[in-house]
Each structure stands twice: as C-alpha cells, then as structure tokens.
Amino acid sequence: MHIVREVTDHLYWIGVNDHRLALFENIHPIPEGVSYNSYLLKGEKNVLFDTVDWEACRQMMENIEYVLDGEDLDYIVINHWEPDHAASLQVVLEAYPNAKIIGNQKGFQLAEQFGFKIDEDKKIVVNEGDVVEVGDHSLTFLFMPMVHWPEAMVTLDLTNGALFSADAFGSFKALDGKLFNDEVDYDREWIDENRRYLTNIVGKYGPHIRKILKKAAPLLDQIKFICPLHGLVWRSDFGYLLDKYEHWANYEPEQKGVVICYASMYGNTEQAAQALASKLCELGVENVEVFDVSNTHVSYLISEVFKNSHLVLASCTYNLGIFPVMKNFLEDMKALNVQNREVAVIENGSWAIRSGDLISEFLDDEMKQMTVLNDRITIASHLKEGQEEELDELAKTIKDSLRA
Ligand SMILES: Cc1cc2nc3c(=O)[nH]c(=O)nc-3n(C[C@H](O)[C@H](O)[C@H](O)COP(=O)(O)O)c2cc1C
C-alpha cells in the first residue's frame, strides 16, 4: 500500500517514517522516530529527489510505483549521498534503468566510494548555479559543503518554488501523517527535536550554515516550499525557522536561561545542584532546567546548551579528574563548537578536590568565549550548613549576569 502526500501540484512526498531505529547514526536516541523524506515530481519529465535509508526502501518503491502509475522515471537528483538518503538508489536504478542521475562531482566520487555502480552516460554533473531543464521544470543548484558532508547541495525548482534542502532544515521525529509545518504546533511539539538534530549533527559547522543562509538569501522570494530530507515540509513562517538557524549558526542563545548539569555518584553534588535550582527559582529566575549527566543522553544536554545563555557544571572528582560523564559532555561541547556562554562551577571531592580547576581550565583553554563566573562552590563530600550563603551568593551572581 502506498503512503504518499501531495506537496503541491505534481510534486509528492514519497518518504517513509521510521519508529524502529533506536539510535540515529548509531549514536543519538530518537524516541519519537525519524522520517526519511524523498520527493517525486510528475511532469513532462518525472524526477525523483533523493531516496531513503535501506531500511525504508520497500515502502518508497511502492510509493514511486503508485505516483508514476506506469510511467518511467527520467531523472534522479541526489543532493546528499549519506546512506540514510542515497542507500536505496541502486534499487531504484534497477527498477528504472533509464533514469539519469543529477549530482555534483564530489557526490559522484562518494557514490563510487560507497560502491554504487552508475554508468558514465547516466551521470549529469552539475556545478553551482547551473540551470538544468527537466521537461517543463527548471532546476538550479547551490552547494553547501559541510552541512554536513562535503558534497551536500540544495536544489531549487524555479518553476514551483520547491527547495530541496537536503539535511538543512531537517529534524528528528517521525511525521506520522503530518507533512507541513502548519499542520502542527511547531514551537510546542517539534522545535526541541529540531534543535537536537541540528545542534548535534551540524552544530560544529555554524560558519558553513551561515554561508549557505547568505547564499540563499537572494532566492528567498522564489522559495515557496522548503523540503528537507528529515521532518516537516515548510510552506509558511520561514522567518521563524530562519531566526532559529541564525541563533544556532552564530552560537547565540535563544533565551536567557540556566541549564544545571550535575555529575554525582552518591548524591551530594546533586543536592547542591538541586539547592541552587530552588534558590534561582525563588529569586524569580525563569527557564531553570536541571539534568543528571549520567542519566541524560548528551545530545539532549547539547541541545539545551545551545538554547540557553547560562550553564552550571557541577561535578565530583574522580581519580584526580572530572567525573567521566561530565568530561565527555565537555568534550562534546568542544567538538560541536559550543561557545559564548556564562558558566558557573560546583566541585566536590573527599580528599583531593580537582574537578573545579579542571573544568575551568577546559572551558578557558579548550573552548571559545566561555566566561567562568567567579563564585565557584567547593564541597568537601557534603554541603555544610554554613555553605548556604555561598549558594545564595552564586544564585544572585547568576541572576545578575542574566540581567546584564
Ligand atoms: C573511583 C573513585 C575515585 C575518586 N577519586 C577522587 C579523587 O581523586 N579526589 C577526591 O577528592 N575524591 C575522589 N573520590 C571521592 C568523591 O569524589 C567524593 O566522595 C565526592 O564527595 C562524591 O560526590 P557525590 O556524592 O556527588 O558523588 C573518588 C571516588 C571514587 C568512587
């Protein structure tokens, strides 16, 4: 049975939802699933835009067959050769051997590396800005290297205004029947999974995202649909989405808020984190969130850090080092280029307390523009009664800094 939705006249979403995959890229949990989007234009020439993960191939093939309704496939545009989008290409080619493949030079190199067998006379190699006529539609191409692979490009159908944006503007979360951004309450139901996808997968490439946003700006008037390879199709409210991307790509927080992340074995560091959270809330600070680093997948922590302006790192000492899960979180922040945040540190230890110094050194030496607030709290095993004042001071410092 086909599962197809119309994007606009003659253009169909023929993608597939996946609720079975536990870990996207075998690393990021996706409890709400993911969609692999593929699109089919049925016109004077029939054009397929990207394919789907191997896992989802059978459903996509049924969808293609239904839309083509006995006609042949003329072209396949591959914007991105990552296997969750290109893996099913070989099967499509076997079913529709006359189809020509439109891609860029780097993409075809990758295709060869991944073992695709594509006849030379089937390849149409495009350069940035080329216009290719496919029947009554004209396609043009913008390259967006490292968002998030080197060959990635977007294709704009100049005839109907559909931008096939590859992984840009993509999101975790299965569509489950919905297709358009205006069919959901995006800010409530989708933005967190969108942010988690973007920040963890292409967070590192903020400057590259800025470049493609700049390149695409003059074309904005012509874009009527943004069709990413994961998540919803956008047909309204582009400003909302672009604003979010501007923040993420510039490493600017979306809101004033405090993310308290603690790493604790016996609960004493945790107690300090919770006490600080309660004091902040009592002072009227909004957007306070607390996370146990041991029990929260790091992709959620990264997403929260991109969203908020302030971070509290509370860690016990472990073999003269930072507690391993906290160290991993720091390394991940560094790898994803997190920067420009205000940070407070709480340390704990029972005989040689080192975690505070080490966290501060990491923030100063390994990351960019991370401002460490002065009032570090040091706990010798368990918070002493007299330390309440220190917590009050820290809460006040954070509040003042949020106001600045
Ligand atoms: C394997 C292991 C290594 C530790 N290494 C250190 C250390 O190097 N320096 C130190 O002061 N405390 C060390 N500790 C003790 C804890 O950091 C300390 O008891 C701390 O108060 C625990 O905080 P928590 O209650 O939040 O887990 C270690 C504990 C364990 C189990």
Automatic annotation (TrEMBL):
<dbReference type="GO" id="GO:0010181">
    <property type="term" value="F:FMN binding"/>
</dbReference>
<dbReference type="InterPro" id="IPR016440">
    <property type="entry name" value="Rubredoxin-O_OxRdtase"/>
</dbReference>
<dbReference type="InterPro" id="IPR036866">
    <property type="entry name" value="RibonucZ/Hydroxyglut_hydro"/>
</dbReference>
<dbReference type="InterPro" id="IPR001279">
    <property type="entry name" value="Metallo-B-lactamas"/>
</dbReference>
<keyword id="KW-0249">Electron transport</keyword>
<feature type="domain" description="Flavodoxin-like">
    <location>
        <begin position="258"/>
        <end position="399"/>
    </location>
</feature>
<keyword id="KW-0378">Hydrolase</keyword>
<dbReference type="InterPro" id="IPR008254">
    <property type="entry name" value="Flavodoxin/NO_synth"/>
</dbReference>
<dbReference type="Pfam" id="PF00258">
    <property type="entry name" value="Flavodoxin_1"/>
</dbReference>
<dbReference type="GO" id="GO:0016651">
    <property type="term" value="F:oxidoreductase activity, acting on NAD(P)H"/>
</dbReference>
<keyword id="KW-0813">Transport</keyword>
<comment type="similarity">
    <text>In the N-terminal section; belongs to the zinc metallo-hydrolase group 3 family.</text>
</comment>
<dbReference type="GO" id="GO:0046872">
    <property type="term" value="F:metal ion binding"/>
</dbReference>
<dbReference type="Pfam" id="PF19583">
    <property type="entry name" value="ODP"/>
</dbReference>
<dbReference type="InterPro" id="IPR045761">
    <property type="entry name" value="ODP_dom"/>
</dbReference>
<dbReference type="InterPro" id="IPR051285">
    <property type="entry name" value="NADH_oxidoreductase_modular"/>
</dbReference>
<dbReference type="InterPro" id="IPR029039">
    <property type="entry name" value="Flavoprotein-like_sf"/>
</dbReference>
<protein>
    <submittedName>
        <fullName>MBL fold metallo-hydrolase</fullName>
    </submittedName>
</protein>
<dbReference type="GO" id="GO:0016787">
    <property type="term" value="F:hydrolase activity"/>
</dbReference>
<dbReference type="GO" id="GO:0009055">
    <property type="term" value="F:electron transfer activity"/>
</dbReference>
